[in-house]
Amino acid sequence: MISIVIPTYNRGDLIKRSVESILKQSYQDIEIIVVDDNSSDDTADQIKEINSSKVKYYRLDKNRGACFARNYGVKKSIGEYIAFQDSDDIWDSSKLEKQLEYLISNNFDIVSCKIKIIGEEKETVFPENSHIDIDEIYTKNKLSTQTLVGKKQCFLDTPFDERLPRFQDWDLAINLVKKYNVGILDEVLVDVYMQDNSISKNPGKAEKALQIFLEKYGTNKRARAQYLRLIGVYRLQQHKDTKKYFLKSFTLNPLDIKLLVDIVLSVFDLEKLHYNIYLKKGRFK
């Protein structure tokens, strides 16, 4: 059995569609665990309208965040395998079947797949390629939570870090790739709909999460340089001072031309130009 864990918070308008996309999976030995993070909307009523014994609903007594909700769902599950879904995303009907077959036939512990990110203005596919490198994963994530299918014990032994307000999937990916045999199925099996109020658009939460990354993985020189640079970028988005972070990053990675441009623009207080460059690149969307 595969247990699918869905954390949700005030997604009453979307949660039903998400659950129904799972119920239409070609692989049917499943349970769906919806963990409501103390929503104030009609999420509970929407779940009650779904007529399926496969759906189990748990409401938390207070808002604890998506990481806590996912860990809670894993502990409540009875399946041998775990998958994660977000309340505003849609799965291809063959997702679980294809990924489980790929996992078993290649002796993986965990498998991911590609996603189509549907934004307000464009669509992109993530990741660009399916190669996983243990060194690269510290500086560039390739796994998204709603793509994962893996052995339950992996997620019990390596839970989500509940301190993180953002980049939870990246942090989990680092730890999973370090400990287990992880593969990516080179096929788009998830549609991700980017919401206006998504935490993945919140630069303040990104900055806070990257500070935690520095604590956890900062001994890796290349990774530390990347986190410092990203903190600078997200501080720029918030119109905060960036010089210190770009300079520290450059001292660790002096061959990065992009960093040199960041330093010049920040040192000479060309914030408006600097901001607009990243805005045109779509970095702040």
From TrEMBL:
EC number(s) stated in the UniProt entry for this protein: 2.4.1.305
Enzyme class: transferase
GO MF assignments: glycosyltransferase activity
Protein's UniProt keywords contain Transferase: yes
A Pfam family it matches: Glycos_transf_2
Gene3D superfamilies in UniProt: Spore Coat Polysaccharide Biosynthesis Protein SpsA, Chain A
UniProt entry keywords in alphabetical sequence: Glycosyltransferase, Transferase
Keyword DNA-binding: no
Residue ranges constituting the Glycosyltransferase 2-like domain according to the UniProt record: 3-130
PANTHER family given in the database record: GLYCOSYLTRANSFERASE, GLYCOSYLTRANSFERASE 2-LIKE DOMAIN-CONTAINING PROTEIN
Protein's name in the database: UDP-Glc:alpha-D-GlcNAc-diphosphoundecaprenol beta-1,3-glucosyltransferase WfgD
Source organism per UniProt: Clostridium magnum DSM 2767
